[in-house]
Amino acid sequence: MLWITDTISIADWELSESFVRASGPGGQNVNKVSTAVELRFEAERSPALAASVKARLKKLAGRRWTLEGALVLQVEDTRSQARNREIARERLADLIRAALIAPKRRIATKPSYGSQLRRVAAKVQRGEVKALRGKPGDEE
Predict the structure, then answer these.
(1) Which is it for strands 15-20 and 36-41: parallel, antiparallel or unpaired?
(2) Among 18, 76, 123, 124, which residue's Cβ finds the most Cβ atoms within 10 Å?
(3) Which residues is 65 bridged to in the sheet?
(4) Which alpha helices (H) appear in 17-112, and where do they start and end?
(5) Closest alpha carbon to 77 in 108, 124, 42, 36
(6) Could you give the CA distance from residue 42 to residue 14 in angstroms, rounded to a whole number?
(7) pLDDT tens digit sequence for 31-87
(8) Helix (H, G, I), strand (E, B), or coil: what is residue 22?
(9) CB distance 81 to 35 below 8 Å
């Protein structure tokens, strides 16, 4: 059981872990021990998450979201399999917590009168600078 918040938890059947050989430093240990963790969370089938949370999670996950609706996290940060497993679970929990926060609705506003005047004045000034770049006899 993976606790996300006080009210939301992920059941063990929704998570599956597989261990693969990691790349990077580690000497001969890298060739012998499968320390990298691939954590798979069946997000689309999860009863713990609301549809809106799943949609935000899919957007946050990006390439880590599969066509079957699963979230796949790969961790090979340390040489310890147990520590990589902890890191993967922490990252999953952080990702779900981020998806729980609904974004604020943007309130449409119009530019102030002063900002409109400043914008037009800047455009006029810029046009004058460009007009002065021509040859001296080009005035018509």
Answers:
(1) antiparallel
(2) 76
(3) 71
(4) 28-32, 51-61, 81-100
(5) 36
(6) 5
(7) 777 888 999 998 888 888 899 999 999 999 999 999 998 999 999 888 888 999 999
(8) coil
(9) yes
